Amino acid sequence: MKKYLLSLISFIVGFGCFVTFSIIGSEVAPDGTLIEPFFLIPIGYLFIAIGIITSIVSFFRNYKKSNKYKDN
Fold first, then answer.
1. Cβ atoms 62, 25 nearer than 8 A
2. How far apart are the C-alpha atoms of 52 and 11, rounded to whole Å?
3. What DSSP element (H or E) covers 4?
4. CA distance linking residue 28 with residue 33, whole number of Å
5. Which run of H or E residues covers position 28?
6. Tens-digit pLDDT profile for residues 7-64
7. 10 Å Cβ neighbour count for 10?
8. Angle, nearest 10°, between helix axes 40-71 and 5-24?
9. 40 closest CA partner among 70, 14, 17
10. Taking Cα atoms as reference points, which of 50, 53, 38, 39 lies closest to residue 13?
């Protein structure tokens, strides 16, 4: 579980950014400008990408270690 902790935390934070964006919502100011927390969308995608990359790296490290012990 320790090896996948960074991946899991990244996924949780990424999805949390999307949920927070939809909870906060957007509104139109009296002067006609749109007010929304747009920064949460790219940050969410960034954390999900980090989670995917670390999951793949962890999987291949574990796969490599398991095959190393089978060969001996």
1. no
2. 8
3. none
4. 6
5. strand 27-28
6. 999 999 999 999 999 999 999 999 999 999 999 999 999 999 999 999 999 888 888 8
7. 20
8. 160
9. 17
10. 50
Which DSSP string do the residues of 31-66 spell out, in sequence order?
Answer: TS-EE--TTHHHHHHHHHHHHHHHHHHHHHHHHHHH
For residue 32, give Cα distances in angstroms to 10, 25, 35, 37, 57.
36, 16, 9, 16, 47
SS3 assignment, position 15: helix
Place of tokens 């749109």: 34
**What's the full length of the chain, in residues?**
72
